[in-house]
Amino acid sequence: MNSTRTGRPAPAPSRSRRVALLATGVTALAALVTPHASATAAPTAAVSADERARSSKAAHRGPILDVQQTARAQVDECFTAIGGPSPEPKDGACPSGSQPKINGAYVWSAARSGDHAYFGTLSNVTCNASSTYSGDTTPYLVKNADVCEFGKGAGAGELGEIYGDARTPQVLRVNADTQKVEDLTPASDPLLKRTVGLRGAAAHNDVVFLFGQSVNEGQTVGQGLSMFAFEGSTGKFLGSKAYTDLVSARGGVVAADGNLYLAGRAPGVNGGRVLRWTGDKEAPFSFEVVAQLANDPGYLTTFKDRLVASGWGTQVPGERAAVSGGPAKIWMSPPIPAAGLTFDGAAAWKPIFSWDEYDPDPVLGKGVAWGALTEWRGELYVGSYNQAAVGAVQTMWKAYGQPKGDVLRKRDMLSASRPTTVFRISDPGTDRQRTTLLYGEEKLPVYNPNTKRWTAKPNLLGQKPKFGPAGFNGNVGNAYAWTFTVFQDRLYMATFDSTGLITPGAHFTAVNNGLSQTTKRTLESVVGPSLKATLGGGDVWRMDDPGEPAVAETLNGFGNRSQHGVRVFLPFEDKGLLYAGMASSWNLRATAKDRGGWELNRLVPGGKRAPLDVRLPRDAQDAARTAGVTSP
User: Cβ neighbours of residue 71 under 8 Å, at least 6 residues apart?
Assistant: First the structure.
């Protein structure tokens, strides 16, 4: 199905100030989508200094991409009641007494092989995250928005009540020339049936890998890694393998030495590994460990002749996602020799920047992770991931104790929020290294456990942000630098925007943070709809020139406010197009407008359009200012 959207948001309507509840809403859902993936993209062609100068002069302050839908998640079940029958839809229609349900939530991973793009999906992420983090498996229904059935769901018989809402993930292949979409899902593979989504992907030498978290009945994620291999040129399934020495992997890159490298978390420890692929099409599942890191390595990219990984602390299931093993660091490999990296001890990889070098709060400095990162025009750009109400604030409460009552808990949730923060690192890993705060805060809220109050203190870099506040425009719902990519010598930065996820996530927010049912109902029926109508839909910000602020390419999920962000970018430079794999958690919203379920969009350069209005509604500004997130 193909369609075209430009999706400029309408001006925000005025409304009464609901500062405390708005604060709860925009921070409480930031880590329902903890897992992430990196895409293996075609190398960007070299750009001359003259071409860059012309590009800078031609920089446009509005959107420049046209959006054409290539595919979207289909209605795959009919919902009647929690635990009730689930009749199959016929041509997307459901029988009387039931309503359409879209289980597919994310395009979660992406890799390119020749003329084809490969994508992996995930289903019902809010349900899976809720049961994993809080341990709560109480079924709930948000009318016309979302349902989680847990032990009464279709997946419970295979995986237990924690993953009763899991569904077998899909493997999709798209021909970038014709836009033909093929479903290559090896549905009969027993390992795929106990894989909770395909979180990562990579491709090299006509082999495509997709991998995800595997579970057995009664287990949570973190038990093992499932890997699936395909022949890139034909789509032929080459087989699968289960690993127990890795529990998560999020992507791979081909480095300057011509080798494919992957990164993943090790089981039961704070930290992870980097692996070099040593296999081939006949024996694809062969890897060599080349690094052991103190952090869980998340996104992986190249910088000249080195690898760079963004670090995470570890979130143990059942501990409400409090973080251990922090602070998160940016890790850089030694120069890669022609024969490829080999294991040379932990000291071979060096941390080049740590979140606690910026954040003045000694506990929150250990509770925030790094998100997307990429090289652009000879410098390294890195963004943050703030787990907010299921990470940073839970880390603080684990250290100091949780206050009583909704008012203080909501205060802590907002004050602990650290919206997407972007840094530029010049000459990384050398004695000339310089770190510049591009989007962030001159002062950040710091908690005093003696007075039990928050005060604003200068960031430890002693810098004012060069271009703007955290969240790009101060939107505290922009919690996560989800994916960065370079396309046609421009840097595109996509965020997870939690403002459109408040309604379906209100149950989890209340349970995980001990909030009252009154607050839950207000989030669900008042704050959620209001914020979705004004700020909802994932953001994409574009940099045309390193010396100029980013431009808003979209502020509303390319016209669909139920899409809370671009989960993966996959550029085809030689074909002049960029794929955007989208994410949505509204599994009961099979509507024409703001439809739920994942979307796969094809982005192509089009006519220049007027700049978007990036101003926030006044109560959103006040909410941020109340916690010291923005300067008075």
Answer: 1, 172, 174, 181, 599, 600
